[in-house]
Amino acid sequence: MFWIVAAAITALVTSAILAPIRRAKGGLGSGSEPAAAYDLRVYRDQLTEVERDLERGVIQPEDAVRLRTEIGRKVLEADRRLSQAAPATGRGGTVWAAAVLGIMLAGGIALYLREGVPGAPDMPLAERFAAADAAYRARPAQAEAEAAATPRTAPDLSEADPDYLAMVDQLRAAVARNPDDLQGQQLLATHELRLGNLAAARDAQARLVALQGDQADAGQLMQLASLMVEAAGGLVTPEAEALLARALALDPSQPQARYLQGVMLIQNGRPDRAFPVWRRLLEEGPENAPWIPSIRAAIIELAWLAGDDEYEPPAPVAALPGPDAEALALAEDMTPEERQEMVEGMVGRLQDRLATEGGAPEEWAQLIGSLRLLGRDEQADAILDEARQRFAEAPEALAVIEAPGPGAGEGVDAGSGEGTAP
Predict the structure, then answer these.
(1) For bias kind Gly residues, which ranges apply (predicted)?
(2) S-S: 222 plus which of 195, 247, 267, 310, CB 3.0-4.6 Å?
């Protein structure tokens, strides 16, 4: 069936390519002639008609001379165009075009026979799932994956602060003397990672998790899993997966663990299961989260592989505006009245922008929360009604706007300026 379909498509493409060439050659024996030949016969008939009119006395001799001159120029132009078109009436151009097309088709078939698998049967969905499960179970262990990973180059510490390097050396010595110190292991893992010493950071984090035992939290487990994945060259090994499972059991919303879970599913041929995980992460945001760029780069292709070829990712939501360092510094030296005036100005600018340009649901929630903090409940209710009209066909956006408490936006307080994102 594949070869029948391929042959039919090839025939259609070949016909489509050669059709305009055949038309340009005058139909290859269809009996059509160039337009210049027809024009030349018309002009010659016109010259004959001028001579007849002159003999009958219909036109004057000077008019006959003028007409002969004008028609003569047209005859020369038509003859020139006919001479240019004459070589194209042969079959040589078409033969060359067909030859080039044949070479391209033959090359495509040869490439497929060499790189493709012509005799491979179609793989049913159940067999694909079985192959994915086999790949999942055949993953290398952590030690094996690390041994096979590309060796990392030693970090360049030539420009590092000598005092900082000396402090890290002292920390290493202190942890070596007291390896059961939880705080020491945590600090060592943090600073080793900052210096680019991945293996040392992984070892310190593993020691920390081991000391914590069942008391290790989701963040500590996720951090160890992430370091193990990086040490394994990006592969989520069974040991790293077990840590991710523990982290998600403690905190099902842990975003980094969910992201790595999606990576594992993709690596093992299950885009259908990875897509809903990454889709939810993308919808939850925030946009400046470190995992969002890689999800955005792959989510459309992942959706297609999962069978959802109509998926459209949500548009990026810009971070909500907040006070800059200068505004915060000024607010510290202000009186309560001056600070209140500054806050009123920030709220007013946000309100004007939303009224003229619109904004994200989070910004509407921020404005409503800010107005309530300022005691302007009636105005907040009016803006809430307007937001409900704007987002009437977006239930998810309305849920953000109408969520109570922090979900509705912390608003703008008198000490921090224009507000913080929820």
Answers:
(1) 406-422
(2) 247
Instruction: Name every residue whose Cβ is closer than 8 Å to that of residue 296 and which is 6 or more positions away in sequence.
Output: 282, 313, 316
Query: What CATH number belongs to 142-147+161-305?
Result: 1.25.40.10
Contact predicate 188/171, CB 8 Å: yes
Is residue 283 helix, strand or coil? helix
Q: Which of 114-123, 135-144, 196-205, 252-261 has the lowest mean pLDDT?
A: 114-123
Q: What pLDDT is attached to residue 418?
A: 40
Measured in whole angstroms, the distance separating CA 296 from the mean position of its chain's CA atoms is: 5
The DSSP output letter for 287 is T
Burial 81-95 (b: 16+ CB within 10 A, else e): bbeeeeeeeeeeebe
Taking the C-alpha atoms of residue 15 and residue 92, their distance in angstroms, rounded to an integer, is: 18
Q: What is the DSSP string of 177-233?
A: H-TT-HHHHHHHHHHHHHHT-HHHHHHHHHHHHHHHGGG--HHHHHHHHHHHHHHTT
Looking up tokens 């709220």 gives 347
Q: In the chain, pLDDT over 70 holds for what percent of residues?
A: 77
Asked if 350 contacts 366 with a C-beta cutoff of 8 angstroms, the reply is yes
Residue 193: pLDDT over 70 = yes
Residue 100 neighbours by CB under 8 Å, 6+ apart: none
pLDDT band of 366, cuts 50, 70, 90: confident
Report the pLDDT averaged over residues 327-353: 70
Q: What global pTM score does this model have?
A: 0.53
For the chain, the domains span: 2-113, 142-147+161-305, 325-408
